[in-house]
Amino acid sequence: MSVGPLEIGILVLVIVLLFGARKLPELARSLGRSMRIFKSEVNEMKDENNSPKQQGQIAQSKQTDEEFWNSPEMQPRTNPVDGTRNQ
After folding, report:
1. Integer distance in angstroms from the first to the last C-alpha of the chain?
2. pTM of the model
């Protein structure tokens, strides 16, 4: 009896669900952030043909990475009663 890729995949999924349940929301949030960054980089590459004047204006209008990640929209939501994270 051999173990195929389907069985290995199911086993990995069960392990992740059992032992990684607390980390899954953080992983999903991280993946979403990565996708946003990737999308913005792709858009910047498409806009590379803009004139230098336009590129300077784009750079000035963008937030720094630190400002972006520290903004209230990017922070985890907390429960106002006991201060715990909503999951």
Report:
1. 41
2. 0.38
